[in-house]
Amino acid sequence: GAVVSQHPSRVICKSGTSVKIECRSLDFQATTMFWYRQFPKQSLMLMATSNEGSKATYEQGVEKDKFLINHASLTLSTLTVTSAHPEDSSFYICSARDRQRAPYSNQPQHFGDGTRLSIL
Amino acid sequence: AQSVAQPEDQVNVAEGNPLTVKCTYSVSGNPYLFWYVQYPNRGLQFLLKYITGDNLVKGSYGFEAEFNKSQTSFHLKKPSALVSDSALYFCAVSSRFGNEKLTFGTGTRLTIIP
């Protein structure tokens, strides 16, 4: 089945550091990837939609200069949290849409295992 | 705008008993409905979906869900709960199948009591 790999699974760093999270589709091409943020005991909040070769579309209230998204290839999207602060600590999850199978796919998005970001 | 409501934050069920996790939705047009499960510190795993056709859809791990258009509901069910079913369950809706955004409910923590 379709696999999405997210790396790193956990990162702890000091305030002011920039952190990059990678999301890779391992066995399919993904023209669209989604980045979510999940707070403790809360649902997933869509942050942005990442389209290969073009600028990401950010949801209302999400700072695009704070959360930089790059989707340079059909199998890789990255989320960089710039100058991270303690309030950025959260669980970040990516998902990817299979470009070729999408119209017939069993599911619209395949999810990574998430990244636990802790800013000290 | 589309939305999903999961009215129960927590559901406790004895092992072997049937379980139900509730979900209601609001969407313009035909709804596309999904259930996902999340284990601690993991991403979401797909359980099942409703696109069209039979109102009762069967999914992974013995789960099923019933689409009820008049009640705008899509409750998740399983005839006999296992301890390993304990997890966080999310209902999601989309107004169009494919490239579009999913809107998730707030999640229901299911605990199966041995």
Explain what the structure shows.
The complex is a heterodimer of chains A (120) and B (114). By secondary structure, chain A is mainly beta. In chain A, 0% of the residues lie in helices and 50% in strands. Chain A is globular. In chain A, 38% of the residues are buried. Chain B has 114 residues and is mainly beta. In chain B, 0% of the residues lie in helices and 51% in strands. In chain B, a hairpin with a 5-residue loop joins strand 7 and strand 8. The radius of gyration of chain B is 13 Å and the shape is globular. Classes of the chains: A mainly beta (120), B mainly beta (114). At the A-B interface, strand 5, strand 9 and strand 10 of A face strand 5 and strand 6 of B.
Topology readout:
The complex is a heterodimer of chains A (120) and B (114).
Chain A: E1 4-7, E2 10-13, E3 19-25, E4 32-38, E5 44-51, E6 57-58, E7 67-73, E8 76-81, E9 90-97, E10 110-111, E11 115-119
Chain B: E1 3-5, E2 10-14, E3 19-21, E4 24-26, E5 32-38, E6 44-50, E7 56-58, E8 64-68, E9 73-78, E10 87-94, E11 103-104, E12 108-113
Parallel strand pairs in B: 2-12
Antiparallel strand pairs in B: 1-4, 3-9, 5-6, 5-10, 7-8, 8-9, 10-11, 10-12
Overall radius of gyration of chain A: 14 Å
| Fraction of residues in H or I helices of chain B | under 10%
Number of strands of chain A: 11
Count of helical stretches of chain B:
0
Look at the helices and sheets of chain A and give the structural class: mainly beta
- Helix and strand element order of chain A: EEEEEEEEEEE
Provide the succession of SSEs of chain B.
EEEEEEEEEEEE
Strand content of chain A: over 45%
What's the N-to-C terminus distance of chain A? 37 Å
Number of E-state strands of chain B: 12
Find the biggest chain interface: A-B, 27 and 23 residues
* Overall average pLDDT of chain B: 92
